[in-house]
Amino acid sequence: MNWKVPLFDPDLGPEESDALVEVIRSKWLTMGDRTQRFEEEFAALLGCRHALAVSSGTTALHLGLLAAGVRPGNEVICPSLTFVATANAIRYCGARPVFADIDSLDQWNVSRATIEPRITAKTKAIVVVHYGGYVCDMGPIVDLAKEHGLAVIEDAAHAPGASRDGNCAGAWGDVGCFSFFSNKNMTTGEGGMVTTDRDDIADSVKLLRSHGMTSLTLDRHKGHAFSYDVVRLGYNYRMGELNAALGLAQLGHLSERNARRGRLVARYRDRLADLNGLRIPFHDHGGESAYHIMPVMLPDGVDRAQVMEALKQAGIQSSIHYRPVDTFTDFRDAGLGPCEYLRHTHRVGDGVVTLPLFPSMGEDSVDVVCAALRNALVL
Length: 379
Ligand SMILES: *Cc1c(COP(=O)(O)O)cnc(C)c1O
What we know:
Blueprint: H1 14-26, H2 33-46, E1 50-54, H3 57-67, E2 75-79, H4 84-92, E3 96-100, H5 112-115, E4 123-129, H6 138-148, E5 151-155, E6 163-164, E7 167-168, E8 175-179, E9 192-196, H7 199-208, H8 217-221, H9 241-251, H10 254-272, E10 294-297, H11 304-313, H12 329-333, H13 343-351, E11 352-355, H14 363-378
Parallel strand pairs: 2-3, 2-4, 4-5, 5-8
Antiparallel strand pairs: 1-9, 6-7, 8-9, 10-11
Helix pairs in contact: 1-9, 2-9, 3-4, 3-7, 10-14, 11-14
The chain binds pyridoxal-5'-phosphate.
């Protein structure tokens, strides 16, 4: 399908191709200096001690949870209004995802108020998701975690470069997890990053991403180490140099592209403000969003499939972020859902439509989308 306005379009150009060619000429394809530089620059962006590049956002979550001590039999609280990988990573650890509702029909993030009732004697950790790039109200969540001795893991897949109350997304909790999948704010094709201020967590992640082996390829190459031991059951979750080279190029443009997304979102808000019953979340959100996506909630009683079909007829691609995870077949089969108490999550799940948003999108395209949505709603 040739869309007039696609949902998303990644910014990739000569800078990225040149970076890739350089890596190929160097013949060093894994765990080299590009990965190291990417990690250093990413840590500097967040103002945290460690950033560790991994193969995806999902593996970042898996390792972040393991390093934070999540084990079989634990419960881990997370939102249901998220990508399925958030909850799957908890299940990889043998733990049980326990879903918390979003705070309200305006703030589509979990909050202290929605997390607290889900805490039991088995709870080990809380995974928050900064939905759409809007950072959760982290102060009260971190306090709650401290009161109960719980780890906090941030799924910051939507939120590279976002901040709130003086802290970056991914620098609030014990661990931050980022994704560089192709439709995220910055991409490495496939890839992810684990961020932390805790040296013990950084050490665990380094071990676990590379087979639980005690010395790294680069150290051996430089002659620092001739042998290695395997001290934990690890994985091969490393990032390649080609991906890291893409990441470095993309990172250099992140703040300018996030700002551009923000201007487009402001235009959407302005153009859609008078549409009766249409809800645009995060109306007065404190903080600097990464503006990952442009979700709206359709007025009550409107047929979403019909609206999305009308947008499609106008050449506009739309999507749904998200069908609540607790309603998926496999989660039902595993006894993890559906959860009736997720009232706001399920209402949003039924009514949300994600509109196109990407940095190279023109202001005129925003107007085209808004006009098409307006038409679809009056039909
Ligand atoms: C994209 C995404 C992930 C998974 O990242 P991958 O790199 O695709 O593995 C996890 N959580 C959220 C909220 C995401 O949007």
